[in-house]
Amino acid sequence: MTLVLRLIINGVAIWLAAAWVHKIEILSPVDRGTGVKILVVLGIALVFTIVNALVKPIVRILSLPLVVVSLGLFLLVINALMLLLTAKITEAVSNEYGLRVEGFWTAIIGAVIISVVNWVLELLIPDRR
Q1: Which residue ranges does UniProt annotate as crossing the membrane (predicted)?
Q2: Are 23 and 110 in contact, with CB atoms under 8 Å apart?
Q3: How far is CA 98 from CA 5, 26, 32, 68, in A?
Q4: Which of left, alpha, beta for 42 (phi over 0: left; psi -120 to 50: alpha)?
Q5: Where are the domains of the chain?
Q6: Which residue, among 113, 78, 84, has the nearest Cα to 98 in the 3D structure?
Q7: Terminal CA-to-CA distance of the chain, rounded, Å?
Q8: What would the DSSP string read from start to end of 68-87?
Q9: SS3 for 24?
Q10: What b-and-e string marks burial along 86-96, b requiring 16 or more CB atoms within 10 Å of the CB?
């Protein structure tokens, strides 16, 4: 249940980032309809969740000195790199479906939006503990 909730939250966050930043696109054929676009967003959210679960902890440990020196601001760079990695993975799988992020600064803005939306949505969901 937690994984499904995490996927939905990440999907909403990525969808909002694509809606608010004009250089972040969710790629899906227009003639396929809304259902296919929702599946594409959930697929992107799955890739993003896997990247955050497997790659991000390693990058955070390796960049710990930079995080400390920058007083945590380097975590934004790490989040942007995870978004760019997700875009590269989804673009490598298919040219018609996926996520496109044009540029590093666009990824920074998208990472900020995704982080804030994740934080707000997790506040709204009651904790089971």
Answers
A1: 7-24, 36-55, 62-84, 104-125
A2: no
A3: 21, 6, 14, 34
A4: alpha
A5: 2-118
A6: 84
A7: 14
A8: HHTTTTHHHHHHHHHHHHHH
A9: strand
A10: bbebbeeeeee
Q: Tell me: the pLDDT tens digits for 13-63?
A: 999 999 999 999 999 887 778 888 999 999 999 999 999 999 999 999 999
| Secondary structure of residue 29 in the 3-state scheme | coil
DSSP state of 30: G
C-alpha dihedral sign at 58, 60, 61, 62:
positive
Tokens of 112: 């900020």
Cα separation, 88 vs 100, whole angstroms: 8
Which residue is listed with tokens 């666009």?
106
In terms of Cα–Cα distance, which of 12, 33, 11, 21 is closest to 106? 21
pTM for this prediction: 0.90
